[in-house]
Structure formats: structure tokens, C-alpha cells
Specification:
globular; 9 helices; about 40% helix; 8-stranded mixed beta sheet; 8 strands; homodimer; about 25% strand; alpha/beta; about 270 residues
Chain lengths: ~270, ~270
């Protein structure tokens, strides 16, 4: 069960998620605005990286932020109150057994949650129950198979594949971004619209080189080195070369591309 | 020399390019508009698939469309005149030896040209000579390594890799989209801005399922089967499975993603 929620348990992950949300906030969240008075559930708020953005962008909405981890929730609560936002309440809970009446929420929001679940359709079905008819669900997920770069490197590709394999071994799916449409469809949602959000990085964008390619993506891959070595997924010398090759894409003539997928649908 | 310009030589390619431009015209070209009175060179116009769009979107501009192939030029000229446009003149010529004075054109436009050249920087340098200072160059290229889909299929990936390898064997580069920034930079252009244009296809977009996934991308891959078999790049049974797997992505729960890169820069 714990493996379902692998984010937010280490300081490194914690920093990464916050970096990620800060750097990508505009790309991912700028068009998510809820009207005043709405009840919005953020399912799987983690350490609150997205919660502060939701609270800021929709100051009149009332957010309920739920996470399985008490520790993550405490961090999230501190973060949100340190920003001075008072429109979020926090509750420990399991997405598959949330203690809310049918049709409780005007809107639902999930970001980087489904990728960790072995049964995302079941999660979407459980969430649909507590969504009002006519309400929306917004789901944001990455897709590690969407990453490519210049110069090409087969070692770099293999390090990324380690991340995909490790996540799969934990019951997750890091190729889930491209699957949001069929997942929402099979879970009974209507009016599904998928909006890909590409992060394209070249050296004319030093903030993204640092904030995304190095400090978000490469840091995330580097974070599973020990696991990958222990599982003998790659030789260490190939791994190290792959990481060097990924840093090579952050030089003057390198480029790096990754795509997040944002899905919005109605009950 | 002939291999540099592999498009436009067969009826199949001809139809494909026109399908492609019609389906993708909005995504790729809607923001390319030249002021009245400008002299614009389209280098490598091929059979005129893009030329008609340029002529339509900028009726006051004067276009010079150049291609190496007389046959392609005749087709392009017929296409443009059949649409009633009179603002394009056609000339046979080689990008590396164009008979124009320095600083002749206000703007330059190239679409799906550099991917066929073993020396794209040299081409960009030759073109820069005939561009006025302060004028713009617009370059559009695909990137076959940007393709991914659901459900995943290693056979389908291998068929796409055949296309990449075959193009490389002809001296081209079908992973060039991601490289536009460094290519323009190394060719001395300024104010480079790369704008990726993702084509995201799911079954809620039947026009793109037919017009892009099936009739553009899969058709393009299928077009090199004979070459791939002759070069023994794949077993035929694996190839056929790969093609079936790509069609599988066009079903109700499938998705398909491809990205073109549009670069704009100044002299």
C-alpha cells in the first residue's frame, strides 16, 4: 500500500516536487481556476506543491486536500499556511475509501497521483462517486517515454527506462500521460479533453535548463540509481555515462523535451 | 545529389505530402503571415503543398518558390495556379547555389527540406547570404523520434527506426526537429525561437486519426517497407506486426503523439 504513494517520503523527493511545481506552475496550472464558493477536492496532495498554486489561483474556492501520508499532509499544511492561504482544509484519507457522500464536490483535482497506482481506473471510479453531476475532474500526469533530447544517447535512454521499470515494479505506470484519454473514458467520464503540455528546453531558456532538465528530470533519474544498481538493471559504468549524456543535453547546443498531459472531463 | 530531395518523386509521396499539409495546415502554418509587398523565398517548395498555404495566408506578399526538381516544380505551379493564386513565381535551383544577389529577400521559408540534406548548416549559411539584415527565416521540420503511442509496441518502434535508418542512409536526418535551435545558432542567425507543434491524437479526434495517424504517419512508414526488407533491417513478420500495432493505436482506446518543430530566427 505504501508503495502507491512513493512521492513525498524523502527530503530529496520533497525538494524535487517543489522545484518541479514552481518551475512548471505556469505551464501546468495557469488555466485551472475555480469560481468562488466551489468545493474542490485535491486527491493526493502530497507535500502541497500543487495545493499552494490551487489556493493562490482560486482564492474564493474552498479546497479539501487529502493524502494517504500523515507526514506529507503536515508538510503540505505548513506550506499552505506559511503562504498565508486559509482556503484549504487537510484530511488523511485513502482515495479508494474516501468518507464523503455521493456528489459531494463541485470539482476534483489530481496531479502526479495516478502514475503511482496499480488500478487507476478504480481510483477514477471511486472519485467519480463523490463528484457532483456536471462537475469537472482535472488530472495531470507526466510520461517518461515522452522524453527525448539532443544529442541522442542510448545510455541516457536506458537510465530513463530504469525509472520506468522501477515504477512498474512498484505497481505504478510512468507512461500514463498518453493514456489519460482511455482511462477517463473507461471510468465513465464525459466531455474528455486532453491538453498536452510540452516542456521544450534549449540554451536560450536557462531557467528551464536549470529548473527543469537538471533539477527536475535528471535529478529524478539520478534518484533511482541505488535501486537500479541493486536490481542490476544496468551496469554502473553505463549508468554513469547515461547521466553524463543527459547533462550533455543542457549545454549550449543541446535540447531536451518532455511532455505532461492535462486531462479535463465531466461527470 | 538526387537523394537529397526524396520527396515529391512518386505519386504516393505526392498524395501524402498534400494530405499532410491539408490536415496540418492550421497547426503548422496559421501563424506564418507576411506583410504585403514583401519578397519571400520558399526554398525547396517540392510539389507546392506548403506553397498554396503561404500564398493564401499572405496574398499581398510576393513569393519565389525554388526546387531542385523540375517535375516537382511543374506540379507545384499547376497546384498554385489551380487555386487561383498569382503571387508565386517558380524557379528551378539548388539551395547551395542560388543565383540571387546578397540580401535579396525580406524573408525565407523552408518546410521539410533540411531533413533531406547531409549538410543542413551549409544550406542555412547559403540561404543567410541572400536574406536581408533584419529579415526572418522560418524552418519547419518533423522528428520521427518524437513519435509515441498507446498501446506501446516494440515492433512498431522498430518500423519507425527503419525509417530513421533509411533516411540516414540517404544522407538525411529524420531526428532533425529537436536540433533546429543549434543548427540555426551555428549558422549565424539571431533571435532564434523554437516553437514545437505537437499533434496529439485520440479517438475524440477522428479527423486526425484518419488524416494524421493513418494517412500521414503510418502511410509514411509503410512507404519504406520494400526498402527496409531489401536492406534486411527487420524480419517481414515483425514489420507486419509493427504496422498492425500502429493501426491498433487508432482504435477507440489508442493515442498517438508526434511533434513538428517550427523555428523562426533573424539575420
Amino acid at each position: 500500500m505504501d508503495n502507491k504513494y512513493v512521492h513525498g517520503y524523502t527530503i530529496r523527493e520533497n525538494v524535487r516536487l517543489v522545484d518541479q511545481a514552481t518551475t512548471l506552475a505556469d505551464i501546468l496550472h495557469s488555466d485551472t481556476v475555480y469560481p468562488a464558493g466551489c468545493n474542490v477536492l485535491e486527491a493526493g496532495c502530497g507535500v502541497g506543491a500543487q495545493t499552494v498554486i490551487l489556493a493562490r489561483n482560486s482564492p474564493g474556492a474552498k479546497f479539501t486536500a487529502v493524502d494517504f501520508s500523515e507526514e506529507s499532509l503536515r508538510t503540505a499544511e505548513e506550506r499552505v499556511s506559511s503562504h498565508g492561504f486559509t482556503n484549504v482544509s487537510f484530511h488523511q484519507g485513502d482515495i479508494f475509501h474516501l468518507p464523503y457522500e455521493d456528489d459531494s464536490f463541485d470539482h476534483l483535482f489530481l496531479c502526479f497521483v495516478l502514475e503511482h497506482l496499480p488500478n487507476p481506473i478504480e481510483a477514477l471510479l471511486c472519485l467519480r462517486r463523490i463528484l457532483k453531476r456536471g462537475g469537472t475532474i482535472t488530472v495531470i500526469e507526466g510520461d517518461h517515454g515522452s522524453a527525448y533530447f539532443h544529442p541522442e544517447s542510448s545510455d541516457a535512454r536506458k537510465t530513463i527506462q530504469c525509472l520506468v521499470d522501477i515504477q512498474a515494479g512498484l505497481g505504478g505506470n510512468s507512461l500514463i500521460g498518453r493514456q489519460l484519454y482511455p482511462l477517463l473514458k473507461k471510468s465513465g467520464y464525459d466531455s474528455i479533453r486532453i491538453s498536452p503540455r510540452m516542456v521544450y528546453v534549449d540554451s536560450s531558456k536557462p531557467d528551464l535548463v536549470e529548473g527543469f532538465t537538471k533539477n527536475t528530470f535528471i535529478a529524478m533519474v539520478e534518484g533511482v540509481k541505488e535501486h537500479a544498481m541493486r536490481s542490476r538493471l544496468m551496469e554502473e559504468s553505463d549508468w554513469d555515462q547515461g547521466i553524463r549524456d543527459m547533462y550533455r543535453t543542457t549545454e549550449e547546443d543541446g535540447t531536451f523535451i518532455y511532455t505532461f498531459f492535462k486531462g479535463k472531463a465531466m461527470k
